[in-house]
Amino acid sequence: MLKTFKYRAFFRAQICYNINMTALEKQKIASFLDMAKDLVATGYHGESKNYQFKDDDINDPAPPPPPPKASVQKIENLDVLVIGEELTQEAETLLDNMLKAIDLYRNKNCIFETNIDTTQIAVLKPRFILVLGEAAALRYLETEAPIKFLREKFTDYKINDFVIPLIVTYHPNAIIENNELKRPAWEDLKLLRSRLD
Questions:
Q1: The pLDDT of residue 65 is above 60
Q2: Engineering a disulfide at 193: which of 2, 87, 102, 120 sits with its beta carbon 3.0 to 4.6 angstroms away?
C-alpha cells in the first residue's frame, strides 16, 4: 500500500510539472490514478478528489536550456589536435602507439577529442589537425568523398583569421578490423611528421 501511494504521488508530481497539459487533463489523469489506487487497495472505487491544477502555457512553452558546452583541455604549444569517433580500448592503445611513433604524446603535445567545435579549436590553436575516419572527415571537411581521396595531403582548415593544416587518415577502429589499412595510415603519419619538424 505504501508503494502504491509513492507511485501515485510520483505520477501526480509529474502531472503538475508536465508542460502542454490543461488543468482538466491533469484532473482526469489524477482521478484515474486515485481510482486505480482504491481498486488495488480495497477493491472499491472511492470518492473522487478535486485537485487544484493549473493550465500550462501551451502556446509559449519555455525553451529547453542549451546543452552545456564540452570543455577541452588547454595545452600550451599544442602540436596536433586529433579528432575522431569514440575508440575501443584496443584502438586507443593502437592510437597511442601510432602517435608515439612520430613523437606525439597525448595530453603532452597532442590531444584527442571526439566532439569539438570551431570555437574550441580556435582556443586551442593547434599547429595541425589529424582527422581519423570518414565520419569526422565528413563533419570537419563537409565532404562525402571516400577517405582514400582525402588522405595523403594537407587541407587548409580555416577558422576566422587563421588557417590550420589538416590531414585525414584511417580511424584506429577501422585499422583493427582491416590490417591492410595500417600501411597507408603509417604513410599519412609520416607525412604529418615531416611537417612537424
A1: no
A2: 102
Mean pLDDT of 101-117: 94
**Distance separating alpha carbons of residues 50 and 90, to the nearest angstrom:** 60
The top-level CATH class assigned to 80-196 is alpha beta
pLDDT at 57: 59
Q: Where are the alpha helices (DSSP H) in 18-59?
A: 23-41
Instruction: Report pTM.
Output: 0.64
Give residue 99's identity as a one-letter amino acid code. Answer: L
Is-contact 145 97, C-beta < 8 A?
no
Which sequence spans correspond to the domains of the chain? Answer: 1-59, 80-196
Residue type, position 62, single letter = A
Give the distance, in angstroms, between the CA of residue 121 and the centroid of all CA atoms in the same chain: 16
- Predicted local distance difference test score (pLDDT) of residue 151: 95
Residue that is written with C-alpha cell 510539472 in the block: 17
Burial class for 197, CB neighbours closer than 10 Å (0-12, 13-18, 19+): exposed
Give the residue-averaged pLDDT of 44-48: 69
From start to end of the chain, where are the E strands?
80-84, 110-113, 128-132, 154-159, 162-169
In contact, 109 and 77? CB cutoff 8 Å: yes
